[in-house]
Structures
1.
Amino acid sequence: REPPARESVPQAGDPELRLLHRVGVVDPDSLDDYRAHGGYIALRNALRAGPAEVIKQVTDAKLMGRGGAAFPTGRKWDSTASQPVRPHYLVCNADESEPGTFKDRILMEGDPFSVIESMTIAGFATGCAKGYLYIRGEYPRATRRLANAIAQARERGFLGRSIMGHEGVDFDIEIRRGAGAYICGEETALFNSIEGYRGEPRSKPPLPVEEGLFGKPTVVNNVETLVNVPLILIEGGEAYARIGTERSTGTRLFCLSGTVARPGLYEVPFGTTLRELLDLAGGVPEERTLRAVLLGGAAGGFVRPGELDLPLTMEGAQEAGTTLGSGVVLVFDDTVNLPAMLLRIASFFRDESCGQCVPCRVGTVRQEEALQRMAGGKAPPDGDDLALLREVGQVMRDSSICGLGQTAWNAVESAIDRLGTLSKGGPA
Ligand code: NAD
Ligand code: SF4
């Protein structure tokens, strides 16, 4: 069953929305309606400006990736565009799987043509004639709408050869569906999946901008990152950069769930505080007491009730010892059994580890076992489970091949160090 998309967007139609401004307003199945709501103005501007100017505008905007790692998009595009090897590929990473994340689904279901237009601009700027849209297999409605958008765009000359009548500007998109593996959202595992191999990450370097899909220079962008691009091409990079803060520009989508009055998807400028964001969602219900907020998802970190004035910026989150990640905000009250929740996270990582490298394959199992013993009040066979968790966590962080293993201990460590969870006599 698919949950209704619109119920997750309480602010639909709000004039202050930028990324979500068409969601819940435009007919997602109609190219004409998309155009009536400002669609394809940005692509026209891009085609007039030329690839170098498009990259300059994105660089001036200081756009950073919204998949989790916040790498500067302009730099990534420039690196791909300047590679002499051909062809270049574009990949839109729509394998949104971080627990608690649903922002890309809302964008794809509610405004699919904007994803297609944004990919076309990115492909034009970086010299790609082909783009792959790798979408999570559990997103059937988004897949249907995107497939329909691609077909309509192709039929009307917005995809294919000589886009919008510009001779020599060719770009097309193919959809590839994931099959339920979290690890296939990791960019190099995703390449393997598209190429027909087992979805296992590759060692980096070489970076995808040099040697990516089919061994060719490849630019990989998250859905939310891409849908910022039309805004930049309509208002200009410098104007875009005036929204948010000096280092974190633009707006950001946050996925709120847990103990808040109105869970759902919220768009706010960077620099909004966590308290303001929670207030937008109606705050913690009166009869409940806030215990902690998990920022950045399973690989993120906990924020305590006394730290809610934390500004939601990349740098603010980093200073607080966490990350904004892919925009996950999980709110816990004091009735939540945190050790059980940490065990759930550990089981998730153990389950989703691809098993390719030892630190992660073994470490995620050892981590889960220790948490199981601790949750059951059992003593370890020898030694101290807290010390074991730290040792195993550090080894995973230092020596795993990819981000899954490197971050599999983050939330557990944060709960121990910041909330006192699992410590002897400490709160649950
Ligand atoms: P990363 O820091 O290795 O890379 C980020 C991006 O920048 C990649 O595309 C990489 O190729 C590129 N890059 C890095 N250095 C570069 C350079 N010098 N030149 C050009 N490009 C360069 O991070 P990652 O492992 O790709 O991603 C980790 C993030 O993924 C985590 O922060 C996590 O929050 C997030 N994540 C998101 C989801 C989701 O569902 N959205 C799921 C799991 C993890
Ligand atoms: Fe696979 Fe884990 Fe190693 Fe990543 S860190 S390659 S998920 S075993």
2.
Amino acid sequence: SNDYRIVIFGAGGVGKTSLALRFINGTFCEAYVPTIEDTYRKIVNSDKNVCTLQITDTAGSHPFPAMQRLSISRGHAFVLVYSITSKQSIEELKPIYDQILQLKTDLHNVPICLVGNKCDETERNVTAKEGKDLATFWKCGFLETSAKNNLNVKELFQKLLELEKRQNLTL
Ligand code: GDP
């Protein structure tokens, strides 16, 4: 089967589930329901044939390190999400990035996007420049998104597929 696995990492409450649901279903929910791990699927076009985009929404603070390693090993592309309202949430991504670095030897072939979600919020604690600088340091993509206002959500997944050089994937 032609599966393309995108894994979403980030602290609890930054909006991982919301981004996935906004992209897959076009919906948004104000209520916070903590996730262990969920996978969503969407069919996309590829140069060979159709491809199933699998989006895995992981548990916030990784209570299961083995599960995190497995998600990274199996993942083709990664979304690292923080909330622009929380400095701590961007700090928490660093060990995850290091873990990806450790497990993916051909890192330059692995699409990664750093995402500052909740950009609709007025109480900002992480500037766009801080996010951009970290993404430059990591040599990965960067976007600020709002799952709530549907800002840059489709663009996020589009960007990941553009970063995928080995096959032509389009939404
Ligand atoms: P997760 O734990 O990272 O999966 O976070 P959730 O997707 O469950 O979202 C946590 C909370 O943040 C929920 O109450 C959402 O409604 C809210 N939320 C998610 N995305 C946004 C956003 O873009 N803007 C705002 N203002 N709230 C959001």
